[in-house]
Amino acid sequence: MDAVRDLTTSRWPIRPLWAFLHCPVCDDPNVHPRRVEVNQNGRVVDISRYGIGHDERKKGLLRGSEIRLEFYCEQGDIFSINLRFHKGATTVWAEQLGHWEGDWPTPELWRD
Ligand SMILES: [Zn+2]
Fold it and tell me: So where are the chain's domains?
């Protein structure tokens, strides 16, 4: 527990390393993971409820790698949190991917 407590003190030059993720569209605190994708400049691996997939895509304009974490909230928003590494810098951003109504969209990553 000391290691966890140390990460959240002001001795570290960063903010605490954990938080509850809210939907970036509607601020709903109930979000569910549905997919993870790692894109290494065109070589893609994704993990979903259906297993692990591999794909080849066109290389992007920027070299580097991108990690996409996809979620949906209980109000129907589908979004991703993305991390892109390029030339020593990692950027992070959220992206709205769609909205669903009715039954749950793509199933959760971890449930069967
Ligand atoms: Zn939402």
Answer: 21-99
